[in-house]
Amino acid sequence: MTLESLAGRTIAGYRLMERVGEGGTATVYRAQHDLHGRCALKTLRERLRKDPTAVKRFLREAEYGGRVQHPGVVRTFGHGEEDGIHYLALEWVEGAPLAQAVADRECLPAAEVAEIVRQLADALEATHAVGIIHRDLKPENIIYDPTARCVKLLDFGIARDAQESSAERLTRAGFFVGSLQYVSPEALSGELVAEPADIYSLATITYYLLTGAHPYPGRTPRELFQQLLGEEPRPLNQASPKLKFSMALEWAVMKGLARNPQKRQASITAFAAEVVAASEQVDVEPVPPPPAGLLGTLRSWIGSRDK
């Protein structure tokens, strides 16, 4: 099936230069605008333009993104419809998805992770302050510039208004939205979630950045469902035999991953503050290999006695 390409067209004053991304619901173009300069233009996929729910979600993304004014959130310039094409104009951000940093480096140092978490928490605090729950926090929805050590939060496609009634929701009861590896346990039932759900997702991201692994190791959706609903997350210090973290850092991350939302930190910034404070105590360091053979064991024993 040939994907529709709008490159070369002008929509609402935005000249589409090239297609730079394709997702399940939208296509992203690098665009040029007389007022905003270089920007990103997101268009709803052609097959979804007749789907009322897809259109509503797209419009809500534009609305919610426009309500949040914060340096850590990608700015929304405008949205609308032209020639049957629903579009959303966004700030162009340098960098790559945060997931790419882990793919390139396997894991990140605790100090770098703490700064990323601090910036994300500040952005999410501003999001929560205007009554919006993101619900889809994951490394793919965060743009990271490793040179500037700067992150930007994007994609409010499945966010919800904290004041939204059950009658206004677009997700049916008993269903959940989000990415299974990062979704909170309470969201699996499809119930309305609050700020603690974003804390859980940010804690999962923190765990992943530190270790390159996830707190639940299930490899299939079914395994993940079973683990999320019935098991405790794997402790941070058990994620990799090559990594060792301070107890304070493990405690902060695992508290954010508590299955009971009420046992997590009181706010998203409280979670970040604990991670930052813990990261300043002990950074990631490799676990020394065990002594080899009888001679190594004796040397280790003698060394411990000398201490």
3D structure, described in words:
The protein is built from eight helices and eleven strands. The protein is of the alpha+beta class and 307 residues long. The strands form three sheets. It has a six-stranded antiparallel β-sheet with strand order 1-2-3-4-6-5, with helices on one face. It has a three-stranded antiparallel β-sheet with strand order 7-9-10. The model is unreliable at 165-176, 283-292 and 294-298 (pLDDT under 50). It has helices at 52-67, 98-105, 110-129, 195-211, 221-230, 247-256, 268-279, 293-306; strands at 10-11, 14-22, 26-33, 37-44, 76-82, 85-91, 96-97, 132-133, 142-145, 150-153, 160-161. It has two domains: 12-91, Phosphorylase Kinase, domain 1, CATH 3.30.200.20; 96-279, Transferase(Phosphotransferase), domain 1 (Orthogonal Bundle).
* Quaternary structure type: single chain
CATH class of the largest domain: Mainly Alpha
Care to count the β-strands? 11
Q: Roughly how many Å apart are the termini?
A: 70 Å
User: Strand fraction band?
Assistant: 15-25%
Largest sheet: 6 strands, antiparallel
Shape: globular
**What is the helix tally?**
8
Low-confidence parts: 165-176, 283-292, 294-298
Q: How many domains?
A: 2
Average pLDDT figure: 85
Overall structural class, as computed from helix and strand content, comes to alpha+beta
* Range of helix content: 25-40%
Lateral arrangement of strands in the main beta sheet: 1-2-3-4-6-5
Radius of gyration: 22 Å
CATH topology of the largest domain: Transferase(Phosphotransferase), domain 1
Specify the CATH architecture of the largest domain.
Orthogonal Bundle
Fourth CATH level, the homologous superfamily of the largest domain: Transferase(Phosphotransferase) domain 1
Written as H for each helix and E for each strand, in order along the chain, the element string is EEEEHEEEHHEEEEHHHHH
